[in-house]
Amino acid sequence: ITSPPSTTQTDGSFEIRGIGPGRFTFTPSVPASTKGWILRSAKVGERDLLDDILELGPGIDIRNITVTFSDVPTELSGSLQTGEGQPATDYYIVALPADRALWRPKTRRILSTRPASDGRFVFTNPPAGQYVIVAHTDLDPLDLADMTFLDQIAPAGARVMVGEGQKVVQDLRIR
Question: What is the average per-residue pLDDT within 28-53?
């Protein structure tokens, strides 16, 4: 369900009214004229609403959401090679949060890509945090929402920390 849009005031405040009870995702956006800006977080205290479902109902009033955008891209990249040092292309690269509490269907933090013909792979603008990256031979997109599958592949992954606005390189080698 799409909620009524809101307009941000000149002081940065916004208000959304007329939402019925239910479970929602909070997804702020910027006008197309602000090309290059990336949504980074929407926090209430330490809780990032971009990583959670927002439950609304009678008596629930959420205030003081801090929405952060950035114009500095974040990147996690690397190359996938065989044990002999040749580019490996017949794989999927999966990046998932090291913190299992952030695993959930349709999260912005569980990512997959295929390496290019030279073995290079890139995840553009992943949220800052610690990730496990894994090369896997077969991947159905539905696997990324299957916690049992993620539990099986995560131990084989390499851990990497991605800071806000950083470009991090983590190469992988198939054994």
Answer: 85
Cβ-proximal residues to 36 (8 Å cutoff; 6+ apart), any chain: 71
Closest listed residue to residue 129, CA positions, set 110, 147, 148? 110
- pLDDT (mean) for 112-130: 96
What pLDDT sits at residue 129? 95
pTM of the model: 0.83
Burial class (CB in 10 A: 0-12, 13-18, 19+), 109: middle
Residue positions counted in the chain:
175
Whole-number Å distance between alpha carbons of 33 and 143: 36
Residue 74 burial by CB count (10 A; 0-12/13-18/19+): exposed, middle or buried? buried
C-alpha to C-alpha distance for 167 and 175, rounded to whole angstroms: 26
DSSP-derived letter for residue 87 is B
Burial class (CB in 10 A: 0-12, 13-18, 19+), 50: buried
Distance CA 85, CA 108 (A): 32
Q: What whole-number distance in Å separates Cα of residue 131 and Cα of residue 141?
A: 19
Q: Are 51 and 143 in contact (CB under 8 A)?
A: no
- Asked whether the beta carbons of 136 and 92 are under 8 A apart, the reply is yes
Amino acid 120: pLDDT: 98
